[in-house]
Every structure is written in C-alpha cells, then in structure tokens.
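call fold target=Sugar ABC transporter permease
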Amino acid sequence: MSGLAIEIGRGKRKNKSWIYFLFPSVAVMLVFFIYPILLTFFYSFTNLALTGESARQLKFIGVDNYIRMFEDPTVRVSIWNTLIFLVGSAVIGQQVLGFLIALLMKHKNRMFRRVIGTIVLAGWVTPEIVCALCLYSFFGDEGTLNSIFSLFGLPAVTWLYTVPMIAIILGNIWHGTAFSMLVFQAALDDVPSEMEEAAVVDGASRWQILIKIVLPFIKSTITTNMMLVTLQTLGVFGLIYAMTGGGPGTATTTLPIFMYNQAFVNYQLGYGTAISLLLLLMGIVLSLFYIRSMKE
C-alpha cells in the first residue's frame, strides 16, 4: 500500500512539473508588461517632468493629473477625434474594405488572387513612417492628387488643411486593410461550398447566401478581427504625426498625439502617463465589449 502511495505521489509531482516551464514566460510578462503598467500607474499620480523643479524632486500629487485631464477641453477633443478615426479607418474602412476584397477574390483564379493580394499587401508591409511620407506627398498642396486635378482643369485643394481627418483615415485604411483581407480570406475559404451550392439549388440569390450563410458562419472571425484592428488603430501615432502633426490646430489630435505632446513636447511626463492610462482604459473597455459579443 505504501508503494502505491509513493507512485501516486510521484505521478502528482510529474503532473505539476509543467508549471516550471511557465516561469520564463511569466517572468517576461511581469518585466515587460505588468511592471511598466504599474510604474505608469504610479507616475500618473506624481508631478514627474523632464525639466524644471519637478524633474529634480518627484512628488506625489494624488489625482491632480486626472482632474486636470477631465477639465482640459483638448482631452475631450482628442477623445472625439480618436473615436472618429477609429470608426472611420478601422470599424468601417479596414473591416468592410478588407471583407469586400476577400469576397471578390474568393472564386477567382490563383494568378488573379496573387496579383491583387500583392498590391494590397504592399501598403501593409511598408513601414508606417514611409506610408505617411507617401501619403503626405499624395495629399500635399503640390502633391499627386492636385496634379491629377490640374490635368482636368480643376483647382488645387489643400487636403491636409481642409479635410485632414479624411486624409489620415484614408491613409490608415490603405496601410492596414491587407490584414483584414488576409483574415477574411482564410475565413471565407473555410465556408463549406456544399452549403452555398445547396442554397443555389434552392433558388437563393448571392445576397441571400451572403446574409444567411456566409456572414453567420464567419461571425466569430468578424468579431475577432474587429477587436485586433481596433486595438491596432487606437495606438496609431507615426502616421498621423508625420502627415499632420495633430493639426491644423487640434483637428487630427488623437489621444496618442496629445499624450506625446504633453509628455515629450511640454515635458509633463506625469500628465502624459495619466492620458496614456485613459487610452489603455479605452482599449480594455472595447476589448471586453468584443469578447462579450463573441460569447453571445
């Protein structure tokens, strides 16, 4: 009986041995994820700065940064701009356009899919700052778009001054649509062809097949892609900063741009970290919303 107990004890130890293999990943997560978040949370309650008296003497100031943040009208403008940019370029732009491209390529031959896929992927694999410079050259006062207008005798338009939000939304759509296209291509390829063929035999139109069969079948993929694209778009900084710098005025000042300006232009790191936590909170709330949608 004692021998059986020893064997059982050895079996339990072996079953728990996998825990030790988690230590490296847990340590990396604590050092590079949990610790920075906790440190940011702490600094948001201080007067941390890059220059001046605050840089020499760190003080705990409580919720002063948060009170200042919610009283600052620029914060409200930045939140509104962030939501417009998010809905326009991610929720509507990348999601819808990526799905349409994947749907149009579904029944095409391999060569067609390869050519179109390469063209769309070109914007995604290009570094963000390079995309921004290309788009600045396209929408600039003497850029490509105005050159095309001049060929038809149309007057030049200062796109980055009159419609800057539309310009950065279109830029982010061009840069990020390929990701959604690839996700939806994989999902659409998994839709059973037998279901679509049976629907055609029953007299269903293409629109009915799309609404009744295809979309319900890839519903979880749509929600997952929406969450990923949303989180990517919330953190977009280089594209906007290189194209407009958040201007003119505060027309394209999103939360990442406003956070950068406060932390590294005005040297108020404590205030900047408080704004970064607001951005983190927005990401968490949206992620929880998408996760709940997937469960439903």
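return ok
The longest helix spans residues 73-104. The radius of gyration is 25 Å.
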